[in-house]
Amino acid sequence: MDARKAIESLTVLTDMVLPSETNPLNNLFGGELLARMDRAASISARRHSRRIVVTASVNHVAFNKSVPLGSVVTVEAKVSRAFKTSMEVFMDVWVEDRESGIKTKANEAIYTFVAVDETGQPVRIPELVPETELEISRFKGALRRKQLSLVLAGKMKPSEATELRALFME
Ligand SMILES: CC(C)(COP(=O)(O)OP(=O)(O)OC[C@H]1O[C@@H](n2cnc3c(N)ncnc32)[C@H](O)[C@@H]1OP(=O)(O)O)[C@@H](O)C(=O)NCCC(=O)NCCS
Protein backbone atom coordinates (compact mmCIF):
# COMPACT_ATOMS: atom_id res chain seq x y z
CA MET A 1 0.00 0.00 0.00
CA ASP A 2 1.56 3.30 -1.08
CA ALA A 3 2.00 5.98 1.57
CA ARG A 4 0.06 9.23 1.03
CA LYS A 5 1.02 12.79 1.83
CA ALA A 6 -0.89 14.65 4.56
CA ILE A 7 -1.86 17.39 2.09
CA GLU A 8 -3.81 14.83 0.00
CA SER A 9 -6.35 14.57 2.83
CA LEU A 10 -6.88 18.33 3.23
CA THR A 11 -10.58 19.16 3.43
CA VAL A 12 -11.91 22.70 3.69
CA LEU A 13 -15.54 23.21 4.64
CA THR A 14 -16.87 26.79 4.54
CA ASP A 15 -20.39 27.72 5.63
CA MET A 16 -22.38 30.50 7.35
CA VAL A 17 -23.94 30.53 10.82
CA LEU A 18 -27.74 30.66 10.47
CA PRO A 19 -30.27 31.62 13.22
CA SER A 20 -31.38 27.98 13.70
CA GLU A 21 -27.78 27.03 14.59
CA THR A 22 -27.26 29.49 17.46
CA ASN A 23 -27.66 29.48 21.26
CA PRO A 24 -29.57 32.14 23.28
CA LEU A 25 -26.52 34.45 23.05
CA ASN A 26 -26.75 34.33 19.25
CA ASN A 27 -23.50 32.42 18.97
CA LEU A 28 -22.96 29.15 17.11
CA PHE A 29 -24.26 26.16 19.13
CA GLY A 30 -21.35 23.87 20.13
CA GLY A 31 -23.05 20.72 18.84
CA GLU A 32 -23.48 22.30 15.41
CA LEU A 33 -19.75 23.00 15.23
CA LEU A 34 -19.00 19.42 16.38
CA ALA A 35 -21.17 18.11 13.53
CA ARG A 36 -19.46 20.34 10.95
CA MET A 37 -16.06 19.18 12.22
CA ASP A 38 -17.16 15.52 12.12
CA ARG A 39 -18.23 15.94 8.49
CA ALA A 40 -14.97 17.66 7.43
CA ALA A 41 -12.83 15.15 9.35
CA SER A 42 -14.64 12.15 7.91
CA ILE A 43 -14.07 13.42 4.35
CA SER A 44 -10.41 13.95 5.21
CA ALA A 45 -10.09 10.40 6.64
CA ARG A 46 -11.87 9.01 3.57
CA ARG A 47 -9.50 10.89 1.25
CA HIS A 48 -6.52 9.35 3.02
CA SER A 49 -7.82 5.79 3.32
CA ARG A 50 -10.22 5.67 0.34
CA ARG A 51 -12.40 3.49 2.54
CA ILE A 52 -15.61 3.74 4.55
CA VAL A 53 -14.66 5.55 7.78
CA VAL A 54 -16.37 5.81 11.15
CA THR A 55 -15.75 8.20 14.03
CA ALA A 56 -14.06 6.23 16.81
CA SER A 57 -13.35 9.08 19.19
CA VAL A 58 -13.48 12.84 19.69
CA ASN A 59 -10.14 13.26 21.39
CA HIS A 60 -10.00 16.97 21.96
CA VAL A 61 -12.13 20.05 21.30
CA ALA A 62 -11.29 23.57 22.43
CA PHE A 63 -14.04 26.16 22.05
CA ASN A 64 -11.72 29.12 22.51
CA LYS A 65 -13.86 31.82 20.88
CA SER A 66 -17.57 32.16 20.34
CA VAL A 67 -18.75 32.37 16.74
CA PRO A 68 -21.50 34.99 16.20
CA LEU A 69 -24.62 34.62 14.05
CA GLY A 70 -23.91 35.42 10.39
CA SER A 71 -20.21 34.50 10.62
CA VAL A 72 -18.49 32.69 7.79
CA VAL A 73 -16.82 29.65 9.37
CA THR A 74 -14.14 27.52 7.76
CA VAL A 75 -13.18 24.10 9.08
CA GLU A 76 -9.82 22.86 7.79
CA ALA A 77 -9.26 19.14 8.39
CA LYS A 78 -6.17 17.07 7.63
CA VAL A 79 -5.04 13.59 8.67
CA SER A 80 -2.11 14.05 11.05
CA ARG A 81 -1.13 10.39 11.38
CA ALA A 82 -2.27 7.01 10.13
CA PHE A 83 -1.81 3.90 12.27
CA LYS A 84 -2.88 0.36 11.25
CA THR A 85 -6.60 0.96 10.77
CA SER A 86 -7.13 4.25 12.57
CA MET A 87 -6.30 7.84 11.68
CA GLU A 88 -5.98 10.99 13.72
CA VAL A 89 -7.54 14.04 12.05
CA PHE A 90 -6.57 17.52 13.19
CA MET A 91 -8.89 20.46 12.62
CA ASP A 92 -8.46 24.21 12.72
CA VAL A 93 -11.57 26.38 12.70
CA TRP A 94 -11.39 29.92 11.31
CA VAL A 95 -13.88 32.78 11.42
CA GLU A 96 -13.77 35.41 8.69
CA ASP A 97 -14.30 39.11 9.42
CA ARG A 98 -16.88 40.54 7.03
CA GLU A 99 -15.20 43.90 6.47
CA SER A 100 -11.48 43.05 6.48
CA GLY A 101 -11.80 39.47 5.22
CA ILE A 102 -9.16 38.51 7.82
CA LYS A 103 -9.52 34.98 9.21
CA THR A 104 -9.07 34.46 12.96
CA LYS A 105 -8.59 31.04 14.51
CA ALA A 106 -11.58 30.26 16.72
CA ASN A 107 -11.28 26.59 17.61
CA GLU A 108 -9.25 23.43 17.28
CA ALA A 109 -10.20 19.77 17.45
CA ILE A 110 -8.78 16.28 17.11
CA TYR A 111 -10.90 13.28 16.06
CA THR A 112 -10.01 9.62 15.48
CA PHE A 113 -11.50 7.69 12.57
CA VAL A 114 -11.28 3.99 11.74
CA ALA A 115 -11.42 2.62 8.19
CA VAL A 116 -13.82 -0.31 7.91
CA ASP A 117 -15.09 -2.74 5.29
CA GLU A 118 -18.75 -3.21 4.31
CA THR A 119 -19.32 -5.34 7.42
CA GLY A 120 -17.84 -2.72 9.76
CA GLN A 121 -14.58 -4.58 10.37
CA PRO A 122 -11.43 -2.42 10.66
CA VAL A 123 -9.13 -2.59 7.59
CA ARG A 124 -5.50 -1.61 6.95
CA ILE A 125 -4.80 1.87 5.65
CA PRO A 126 -1.80 3.51 3.93
CA GLU A 127 0.88 5.27 5.96
CA LEU A 128 0.87 9.06 6.10
CA VAL A 129 3.86 11.21 5.16
CA PRO A 130 4.01 14.58 6.95
CA GLU A 131 5.93 17.32 5.10
CA THR A 132 5.56 20.76 6.71
CA GLU A 133 6.87 21.67 10.15
CA LEU A 134 3.32 21.71 11.56
CA GLU A 135 2.43 18.36 9.95
CA ILE A 136 5.60 16.81 11.41
CA SER A 137 4.92 18.16 14.89
CA ARG A 138 1.30 16.91 14.84
CA PHE A 139 2.47 13.53 13.47
CA LYS A 140 4.99 13.18 16.33
CA GLY A 141 2.38 13.89 19.04
CA ALA A 142 -0.27 11.59 17.58
CA LEU A 143 0.89 8.32 19.18
CA ARG A 144 0.84 9.92 22.61
CA ARG A 145 -2.70 11.21 21.99
CA LYS A 146 -3.83 7.81 20.68
CA GLN A 147 -2.56 6.15 23.86
CA LEU A 148 -4.30 8.75 26.03
CA SER A 149 -7.57 8.21 24.17
CA LEU A 150 -7.28 4.42 24.53
CA VAL A 151 -6.50 4.70 28.25
CA LEU A 152 -9.50 7.02 28.80
CA ALA A 153 -11.72 4.61 26.84
CA GLY A 154 -10.54 1.73 29.03
CA LYS A 155 -8.97 -0.01 26.02
CA MET A 156 -5.35 0.27 27.19
CA LYS A 157 -3.74 -0.10 30.59
CA PRO A 158 -1.89 3.05 31.71
CA SER A 159 1.19 0.86 32.27
CA GLU A 160 1.21 0.01 28.53
CA ALA A 161 1.04 3.65 27.43
CA THR A 162 4.78 4.02 26.89
CA GLU A 163 4.63 7.34 25.01
CA LEU A 164 2.43 8.90 27.68
CA ARG A 165 4.67 7.73 30.47
CA ALA A 166 7.69 9.15 28.65
CA LEU A 167 5.91 12.54 28.55
CA PHE A 168 5.63 12.63 32.35
CA MET A 169 9.24 11.51 32.79
CA GLU A 170 10.59 14.42 30.65
C1 LIG B 1 -14.48 2.33 15.82
C2 LIG B 1 -14.66 0.80 15.77
C3 LIG B 1 -14.67 0.33 14.33
C4 LIG B 1 -13.46 0.20 16.50
O1 LIG B 1 -13.73 -1.17 16.62
P1 LIG B 1 -12.87 -2.09 17.63
O2 LIG B 1 -13.52 -3.39 17.74
O3 LIG B 1 -12.54 -1.31 18.87
O4 LIG B 1 -11.60 -2.32 16.76
P2 LIG B 1 -10.11 -2.40 17.22
O5 LIG B 1 -9.95 -2.65 18.69
O6 LIG B 1 -9.44 -3.31 16.25
O7 LIG B 1 -9.61 -0.92 16.95
C5 LIG B 1 -9.46 -0.43 15.63
C6 LIG B 1 -8.57 0.78 15.70
O8 LIG B 1 -9.26 1.84 16.35
C7 LIG B 1 -8.47 2.34 17.40
N1 LIG B 1 -9.37 2.82 18.43
C8 LIG B 1 -10.45 2.17 18.94
N2 LIG B 1 -11.02 2.94 19.88
C9 LIG B 1 -10.29 4.07 19.98
C10 LIG B 1 -10.36 5.24 20.79
N3 LIG B 1 -11.31 5.40 21.71
N4 LIG B 1 -9.41 6.21 20.62
C11 LIG B 1 -8.44 6.07 19.70
N5 LIG B 1 -8.31 4.99 18.91
C12 LIG B 1 -9.22 4.01 19.05
C13 LIG B 1 -7.62 1.15 17.84
O9 LIG B 1 -6.46 1.58 18.55
C14 LIG B 1 -7.29 0.55 16.49
O10 LIG B 1 -6.29 1.36 15.87
P3 LIG B 1 -5.11 0.75 14.94
O11 LIG B 1 -5.66 -0.44 14.20
O12 LIG B 1 -4.78 1.87 14.01
O13 LIG B 1 -3.97 0.42 15.86
C15 LIG B 1 -15.99 0.32 16.48
O14 LIG B 1 -15.89 0.62 17.85
C16 LIG B 1 -17.21 1.00 15.91
O15 LIG B 1 -17.70 0.61 14.86
N6 LIG B 1 -17.73 2.01 16.62
C17 LIG B 1 -18.89 2.77 16.15
C18 LIG B 1 -18.45 3.86 15.18
C19 LIG B 1 -19.59 4.79 14.87
O16 LIG B 1 -20.69 4.36 14.59
N7 LIG B 1 -19.28 6.10 14.94
C20 LIG B 1 -20.30 7.10 14.80
C21 LIG B 1 -20.92 7.31 16.15
S1 LIG B 1 -22.46 8.08 16.02
In total, the number of strands is 7
Number of domains: 1
The CATH architecture name reads: Roll
Q: Biggest sheet: strands side by side, in what order? A: 2-4-5-6-3
Q: Give the distinct bound molecules.
A: coenzyme A
Low-confidence stretches: none
CATH topology, anyone? Thiol Ester Dehydrase, Chain A
User: Based on helices, strands and strand pairing, what is the structural class?
Assistant: alpha+beta
CATH superfamily: Hotdog Thioesterase
The CATH top-level class label: Alpha Beta
How is the biggest beta sheet arranged? 5 strands, antiparallel
SSE topology string = EEHEEEEEHH
The helix content, as a percent range, equals 25-40%
Return Rg in Å: 17 Å
How far is the first residue's CA from the last residue's CA? 35 Å
Family: Belongs to the acyl coenzyme A hydrolase family.
GO molecular function: long-chain fatty acyl-CoA hydrolase activity
GO cellular component, one term: cytoplasm
Keywords: Hydrolase
